[in-house]
């Protein structure tokens, strides 16, 4: 299987044409057309991740987040220059599926909604319809099979995501039935979620004033947890669709945030 074939497969699941206008999806650093034997998948193209992938022997690297959103030069001695040097010296291809993957409601991006067994799951923020007539957009919304007290629901989310710390803001509902979510930084969809009847909205990177002004309960599970698991699952999908003999390995990332919990010390979330 050649480099171009792997790129085409990624495009099948996350077409760059559906990426946000501000985004930088697709090939980040081009490598030669070659026979691909090992595909590395990760959330972030950071030096420690790229190093492990190359040590494994990856000849194609796919990440969710792009190397850079805006065009930039390696004009500083920083992580960006380090990654460029690593990838160019190894002569491999680095590719990103960012918002092009985020809008694929029927794919791995909605994993938590399925894990929570939400009923009548649908797109929260519709942005397009693909050639097959499938609705594309950001986030999802659906209903729990049975209502739960908020605290019980938060515990269920914690177990599903592996988060030891979840920031809860906004007015607490008496019961949770309708749930909306958006992986990554989705606080811009809070109003849309509650306008569609959500009792709870799950996302990451919620700012102070957004939390303060929210008309409903918001669970901030961080930017990392939902998208890290999403890419872990995407690696499985790719492996199932690549030719026999092509290995795929997911390389775990590093959540930049840790939290001190009294009596427990520093916890990752």
UniProtKB/TrEMBL annotation:
Gene3D superfamilies tied to this protein: NIF3 (NGG1p interacting factor 3)-like (3.40.1390.30)
Recorded superkingdom: Bacteria
GO cellular component, one term: cytoplasm
Positions that bind a divalent metal cation 2: 64
GO terms for MF: metal ion binding
Pfam families: DUF34_NIF3 (PF01784)
Sites where the protein binds a divalent metal cation 1: 65, 102, 223, 227
Keywords: Metal-binding
Record-stated family: Belongs to the GTP cyclohydrolase I type 2/NIF3 family.
Subunit composition and interactions: Homohexamer.
PANTHER family hit by this protein: GTP CYCLOHYDROLASE 1 TYPE 2 HOMOLOG (PTHR13799:SF14), NGG1 INTERACTING FACTOR 3 (PTHR13799)
Protein name per its UniProtKB record: GTP cyclohydrolase 1 type 2 homolog
Organism for this UniProt entry: Desulfovibrio gilichinskyi
Lineage, broadest ranks: Bacteria, Pseudomonadati, Thermodesulfobacteriota, Desulfovibrionia, Desulfovibrionales
